[in-house]
């Protein structure tokens, strides 16, 4: 059986959970004797499609004349994919994001992965011009099988779309349990800090974290907040200033290896989101033996179970209280580390790949 993947996430995302998911999935498919895949990408910017993958991924060299012409890169990639869809050796198509450029001409079985339902649950925080929810609906309506990354995501899909339950299969994200962790040093990393990872807008509930940390820092003056992710925007800097923690917050544009170090040395990792489809950083924290504090919202209790501490998602007092408990109790932190390592066994990448291949084969 041969699966076709497309270009989308690899020309849009340098780092990130979705691109890593597809890169790991393709690596896994390649290890099964009766499975193969095809991928052709122009203008790749993605870290996970590095030099060592070029041969295996049938990678097409970046064309320099398209470097600053994103629309031309996209058009070129779409034409390549549409041509590949005519290949009789292709059994299943699995696009890597939600552009519906192929919908009208697709005659192959379609598998899609829904990573979250954020646009549907929180439409007000996104631009009214954003086409993603509409594009996603077109995918959902066309798909032969839908992979949901959690039971919560599946229930949200069924909440918004009139589908048969058996059209959706829950396949949890996985992490490579056998791959050794690699660490890269970071200069001037503080001795005592709480770690936050990823984007900080809207549903991420970052504002509540700022307020909670501001209160907490009065009791723990040496404590720092490390943000692994993009540079702080002006409005975020002002928010820190108003909460008197500008000098207590450190932003790091971390590599994967530096991120491992940040998890490893953090007192704990905090994930305050109002909503997530899965929450891959939870697994990263577990693997790096980092205690985890989550909001009690969305899929978090489903994914982490008793291996994390929780606060009431919209309660500042609850947030401060739970952070204080973790800071003051080394025993609690050690207990969560132990439970996290045990929980991680449920999320092997091998299991994710096997279940996904089973879905492919059900359509072949």
Automatic annotation (TrEMBL):
The keyword Transferase applies. Pfam families: Glyco_transf_4, Glycos_transf_1. Gene3D superfamilies: Glycogen Phosphorylase B. SUPFAM superfamilies: UDP-Glycosyltransferase/glycogen phosphorylase. Keywords: Transferase. Residues 86-178 form the Glycosyltransferase subfamily 4-like N-terminal domain. The keyword Secreted does not apply. Residues 190-342 form the Glycosyl transferase family domain. PANTHER family: GLYCOSYLTRANSFERASE WBBK-RELATED. This is Glycosyltransferase family 4 protein.
């Amino acid at each position: 059986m041969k699966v076709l993947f497309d270009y989308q996430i690899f020309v849009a995302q340098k780092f990130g959970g979705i691109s890593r998911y597809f890169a790991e999935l393709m690596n896994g498919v390649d290890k099964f004797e009766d499975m193969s895949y095809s991928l052709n990408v122009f203008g790749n910017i993605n870290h996970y499609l590095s030099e060592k993958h070029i041969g295996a991924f049938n990678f097409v060299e970046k064309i320099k004349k398209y470097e600053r012409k994103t629309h031309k890169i996209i058009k070129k990639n779409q034409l390549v994919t549409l041509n590949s869809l005519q290949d009789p050796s292709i059994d299943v198509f699995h696009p890597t994001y939600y552009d519906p450029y192929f919908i009208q001409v697709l005659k192959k079985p379609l598998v899609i992965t829904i990573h979250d339902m954020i646009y549907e649950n929180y439409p007000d925080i996104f631009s009214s011009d954003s086409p993603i929810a509409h594009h996603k609906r077109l995918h959902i309506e066309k798909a032969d099988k839908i992979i949901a990354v959690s039971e919560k995501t599946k229930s949200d899909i069924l909440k918004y779309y009139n589908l048969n339950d058996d059209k959706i299969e829950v396949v949890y994200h996985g992490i490579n349990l056998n791959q050794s962790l690699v660490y890269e040093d970071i200069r001037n990393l503080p001795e005592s800090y709480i770690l936050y990872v990823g984007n900080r807008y809207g549903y991420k509930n970052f504002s509540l974290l700022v307020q909670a940390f501001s209160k907490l820092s009065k009791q723990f003056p040496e404590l720092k907040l490390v943000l692994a992710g993009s540079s702080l925007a002006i409005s975020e800097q002002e928010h820190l200033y108003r909460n008197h923690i500008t000098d207590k917050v450190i932003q790091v544009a971390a590599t994967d290896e530096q991120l491992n170090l940040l998890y490893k040395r953090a007192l704990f990792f905090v994930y305050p989101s109002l909503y997530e489809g899965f929450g891959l950083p939870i697994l990263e924290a577990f693997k790096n033996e980092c205690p985890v504090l989550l909001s009690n919202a969305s899929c978090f209790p489903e994914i982490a179970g008793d291996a994390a501490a929780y606060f009431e998602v919209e309660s500042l007092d609850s947030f401060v209280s739970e952070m204080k408990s973790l800071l003051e109790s080394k025993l609690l932190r050690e207990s969560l580390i132990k439970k996290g390592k045990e929980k991680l066994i449920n999320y092997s990448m091998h299991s994710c790949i096997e279940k996904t291949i089973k879905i492919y084969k059900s359509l072949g």
